[in-house]
């Protein structure tokens, strides 16, 4: 405001001056409020901009170029490869009983020039053995079943023979269909590449539609196995559960996965809502669920949960990159988490649960004091105050692994189990129909379960499809040990 303008206002009287000052005061207050909102917005944007795989749930593939390099274990300063004195791991020779074809070779001439005659071939010592593994020429076996007709001499009606039990009604046998399903789901080969591969390897001509039909039939045969796996999961003592994105004709969906040490079940659902977690685990689930802090799992009592400490390490890392009290909070949280994982590693070596609880007990006291202190802070530190209150409300879920056998302090088992499904989604872009969703969730469940059990997927699918064609009982897959 210029001096002349101020003098003019003053000359108009006291009431005018007061009104102008009040207007200026209100304007300043509004500007201060706007500045506070913008500062909060800038702080939030800076926090989002600094997110990476080390301080959030983002995968490493989403890390920006500015993200810090991932920490690697310090090297031993030794050269790569086998070290002096290290026992070799060469390929051993197979016993003669496993050799399919034996080929004898004899020297033709001595270095002195003497040619060996046929009657001089008398072995002098053991031969040098050299074994070669080779594929025989591969081709599918084309079998034609001729169903003859006979006319009844009595009534004159024609009767046609029926296919014997075990002969598939379709054009492809169970082993070929099992191979196609394995290559598609386990090895993640596209439909078009599968058409070329089957033609080149097996000499069998198929189409992309045939591949899809084979996968659909395989999933239908797997359906009772899937239901059995689901019942096994719901009755488990401890499970790991997680969710990731999926696509249906380009629209967002969610792929849920729940795993035990020897079984896995995947389910495609509309979203990440709590109702989907309930539908997967079942209303009567009584086991322990290890997961992250996503609110969809809050219907479970904290005593029946185990929060993932790997996720908490990322959260503490994010807070340690803040300022002042938030930075100190994050650094102390990381130090407590580091000691917790040291105690867990020692427990895995010794199996002494009493010693584990003894080492964890002071960490519980330290963390509780840290969280309660953070929960009393002012609104300037709302991010780690909110995080602290969240952990305090779920406090028993931080320590279940110290009490229950089979429960670990991380949810790595579920994240590793979902990794193959995520790669499949990235390559296939998800599903194009609801039937396709049902097909892939069943095939992924069987594939991951076989992997957990160290069981060949191709051999199991071939056995299952053969039993399905013959009308025999379906071979079980769920097991407890």
Give an overview of the whole structure:
The chain has 481 residues and is α/β, with parallel strands linked by helices. It has 13 helices and 7 strands. It has helices spanning 3-11, 14-49, 174-185, 191-202, 208-234, 274-281, 309-320, 324-350, 353-375, 382-393, 412-428, 434-452, 457-470, and strands at residues 149-151, 158-160, 238-248, 251-260, 263-269, 288-291, 305-307. The strands form 2 sheets. It has a 5-stranded mixed beta sheet, with helices on both faces. Strands 1-2 form a two-stranded antiparallel ribbon. Strand 4 (251-260) and strand 5 form a beta hairpin.
Structural class: alpha/beta
Mean pLDDT: 85
What order do the SSEs take from the amino end to the carboxyl end, as H and E? HHEEHHHEEEHEEHHHHHHH
Distance between the termini: 84 Å
Give a short account of the largest sheet: 5 strands, mixed
- Provide the β-strand percentage band: 5-15%
Give Rg in angstroms.
Answer: 34 Å
Record the strand order, biggest sheet.
5-4-3-6-7
Shape: extended
Question: SSE layout and pairings?
Answer:
Elements: H1 3-11, H2 14-49, E1 149-151, E2 158-160, H3 174-185, H4 191-202, H5 208-234, E3 238-248, E4 251-260, E5 263-269, H6 274-281, E6 288-291, E7 305-307, H7 309-320, H8 324-350, H9 353-375, H10 382-393, H11 412-428, H12 434-452, H13 457-470
Parallel strand pairs: 3-6, 6-7
Antiparallel strand pairs: 1-2, 3-4, 4-5
Helix pairs in contact: 3-5, 3-13, 4-5, 5-12, 7-8, 8-9, 9-10
